[in-house]
## 1
Amino acid sequence: MSQDALVKRQFGHRARLALSPAGVLKTDDQAHAARTMWNLLHAWWQMMPKEKRTLANADAAIRQAREDIGFLAVLPAQAAQAVLKMYFQAWKNCWDGRAGAPNFKGRFRTVMSVDIPQGRDLNIVRVHRRWGMANIPKVGRVRFRWTKGLPVGKHANADNRITGARLIKDALGWHIAFRVQTLQGKPEPHQGPDIGIDVGVSVPIALSNGERYEHGEWLTGKEKDKLLHLEQRAAQRKQYRKPGEPAGRRLHHTYGQIRLNRSISGEAWGRTVTMLAYKTARHGGTLVEVPAAGTSRRCSACGHTTPGSRESQAVFVCKNPDCGWSGNADYNAARNVLHLYRMGRALIPAAGRAVVRRAKRVKPAAAR
Ligand SMILES: [Zn+2]
C-alpha cells in the first residue's frame, strides 16, 4: 500500500490503574497541584495588562510559583507545562466561539486529572496477557488492565504510537486514558448504490432496498426502568381522576417527566446517526441527511400524497385510486428518503451514498 493511501487516525483508550494506596495519595496531590496551578494562572491573567499576557510571561510566572509554593513541586514539570498549554487553549476556544471564558476551578466541582503530555515518558510494557505496566511520573511503575492492542514495543513506530496520556479520577478511582495515533489504510471510494435509510426512534432502521436492521438499545437499563416507573405512575394517577375532570397538577408533572425521558431516546437517535456517518466514511461512503417532512405520508410507488393514505404505524396503504400500493410503512419512508436525495433535497449538499431521514425529536416539556 502506498503512503498516500494511508490516513492518520487518533483515538483514546482507557484503562483502570492498579495504584497502591500511597500511589493514590501521590496522584491526588498531583491533581490538586495541577488545579492550583490553573487557578494561579487565571489569577495572574486577570491581574496582567492585556499586552503582557504572553505564553513566555505565563511560563515565567508558573516557574516562579513552583519555586515559591512548596506543594506545587509534586507536579511533574511536563504536567505543569500541559496546564499552561491547556489554559491558553481554553482562551483560544473562547475567542473562537467554541466555549465560554476559562474560570477558576473549584475543589469539588472539578474532575481530578493530571496530564502526561509525552508518550515516551510512559515507557509502556506488556507484562502479562492481561496486564501492562506504565510509568507514572513521580509515582512510579503502575499496572493497568490490558484490554486492547496498544502500539508499544515492537508494534510501535513513528506512525503507530502512544502520543501521551491523561490520568483521570472517577467514582471507581484513577484510570489512564492513552492517546493513540495510528496510520490506517484509506478506504476506496464506495461504488455501491445509493441507499435511503429511515431512522425512527422506536423502530428498526429500514433501508430502501427492503432490508431492516435492529439498532442497539435506545435507552440504558436505568433510563428504561425510570420511564416504565413514570408510565405506571401516570396510569395510577389517571385511575383516581373522575371522568370529565381535567388532569391534575401531579399527573401533568408525570406526563412532563415522561416526555423528558422520551427526549433522551431522541439523543440516542443522534448518537446512532453520528455513528452511521463515521462508519459510512470509514468504508468510503458519505452520509447525507434529507428533511423528514412528508416521507411517511407520500406513496413511494406512485409519488402521490393522498389524504388518509397512512393506515397504521406498520403498514402503508395508498389511497390513490390509480395505485393502491401497500407495504411496510418504514420501507415506504426509506424509499421516499432516497427519492428526496435524488431530487437534490439534501440538507448538507454532498455527493452521497447513504441518505438518512431526520426524525422528529420530542421536545422536553419541562425545559425552560
Ligand atoms: Zn400510490
Note: The chain is about 35% helix and 20% strand.
## 2
Amino acid sequence: MRRFAAPFALAASLALGACAGTAAKAPSSVAEAPAPKGPPRLVVAVSVDQFSADTFAQFRQHYTGGFVRLTGGAVFPSGFQSHAATETCPGHSTLLTGTRPARNGIVANNWYEPDGPRGDKPIYCAEDETDPASSPRNPVVSPGHLKVPTLGELMKSADPATRNVAVSAKDRAVMMMGGHKIDQAWWWKNGAFVTLKGRASTPAVDKVNAAAAATIKSGAPALPIPAWCAAADHAVAVGNTTLGTGRFVLEPGKEPQFRVSPRMDKATVDLAIALTDEMGLGQGSAPDVLSVSLSATDYVGHATGVAGAEMCILQNQLDQDLGRLFAHLDAKGIDYVVVLSADHGGLDMPERMDQQAFPKAERVDVSLMPEALSKAVAAKTGIAVEGPLVFGDAPMGDLYVSRKIDAGQRAKAVAALVGILRAHPQAAAAFTGEELAKTPLPSGNPQDWSLKDRARASWHPGRSGDVVLLLDRAVTPIPVAMPGAYVATHGSAFDYDRRVPILFWRRGMRNFEQPQPVETVDIAPTLAAVLGLKVADGTFDGRCLDLDGGSGNTCAQ
Ligand SMILES: [Zn+2]
C-alpha cells in the first residue's frame, strides 16, 4: 500500500507534467478521477508489432486517442529489444518474461535443431513439433519452447486466482506473452480467432468472430485519411506497381485484405474488451493480466512499408482503438496499469528510402540465400553431401551446416562459410556459434553494445546457428519485392529494428519522459514491483524502472 502513496498520489501532477512540456493532455475525466491506492487490479500489456521508436517519433504529434493517455504517463522513447534477432517471436518473448532470448530460448521465429528429429527441417517457435500433425506452416500451437515463466504465470504462482489472458492476430505473440499457463489464448487463423487444441470457444469470442466474418463477407469502404497524412500520401514505384497511396478498401470475401489492415487491430481490441467483460477481468480477488498484441502495424509495414499513407491511416486507427479499450476499462471502474511496447522495430522499403535522403538502401543479393551459400561452400571445400550443405530460415541470422558430414568436415565447412560471409559487401558481421558461446552475456547500455554482444543476447545452445550472419545497415533481406505483401521488414541488429518505445500509464501517475535507453526486459520487473509481486532474485535479466516521476520510488521494497 505504502508504495503507491507517493507514486500515484496526485492527479494534479498530470497538470504539472504538462507544464514541463513533455506531457500530452490527459482526458479530463481521467485527470479528475482519484488516484487509486494499492496494487492495480489489471495489467494491460500491449504490444504493437513492428512499432519502432522511429514510427512512434514520427506519429506521436498527431495522436488524439489512446496514445495521448500513454504519453501522459512514464515515457521511455528509447526502449531496446537489445538482441540481434529482431523478429516477432524473440521480441514477444522478452516483453513479459524479463529475459533475453539467450536465456528464454526463443532465438528466432524459426530455428533448426540439426541433431534432433527434424534434422534440416525448421521448427516454429510456437509449435509442438512432437505432434505429428504439426508443421511450421500449420503448427499445433504450443508455448513449450519458452524456457521461462511469464509475468502472468509468476502472478498465478503467487495467487492462483489471477487470470492470464492473451489475444493477438499471431499465435506466437499469444504464446510468448501468455506463456505456459494461459486461461484464455486467442489468435487469428483463416478468418476467425482460434485457441489451443482441445479448448472450447466462449460466447464472447463467438460474437467477435461473427462480427468479423460479417465484415469480411460484406466488404467495407476505404478508411478515412487524416489531413496530417497528406505529405505521406504519394506513390512510390515498387516492381511494376506503386505503393504509398493505399486506403484499405475491403473487397467482399477477401480475408487477407481484412487481416492486413487496421480492421485486424480493431477486431483484436474488440476481443480484448469482450473477454474482459465475460471474465470480469480486473474485478476478481487477484490482479489479472490481459496481453494484447496488435499485429496490423507489422502486416501493413511488411506489405507497404512504414512511411506511406497506409501506415499513416493505420496509426490513426490504432490510436482510436487503444482509446476505445482504455475508455471501456475506465467505464467499468477498473484500476489498471498499462504498458505498451513492441516486439521489434522496422525499416521502410528501400524504394522510398532512396527517395528520402538515405545514402544506400538496397535489397539483399541472392548470393546470401542459404541455397547459394550451400553451393559456394561446396565449391570452396569440395564437400559433397546429400541435401543442403548449409541451411537456414532467411538470408540473415542463424545458418546451420549439414550433420551428414563428420565433425572435421563440418569445421571446414563452417570456416569456409564464415570466410564467404565476412568477404560479402552486404554482411556487417558473421560469428560462429563457438565464438558466441565463449562471449560473455552483455550488460550495460544496449545502445553501446557491439554487434557480437547483440548476437550473443539472442544466442542459445542447441537452437542457434553454427554461424550467425548479421546483414549490413539498411540491407533489406527480401531479394525481390512483393508489393502489397512483402516489401519491407526487420530482423537486423541495428537500432531501427532494436529501438522501440516503452510507455507506462496508470491513473493519477505523474508524467515524465526519460530519453535514456532502457530495455524491454525491464518491463516485467517494473510491473512486478508495481504489483508488489515477490520473485526470486535472478528471475529477470532486466531491472525495475522507477515509474514515480518524483521523489518516490515504485521499485523500493
Ligand atoms: Zn513482429
Note: The longest strand covers residues 499-506.
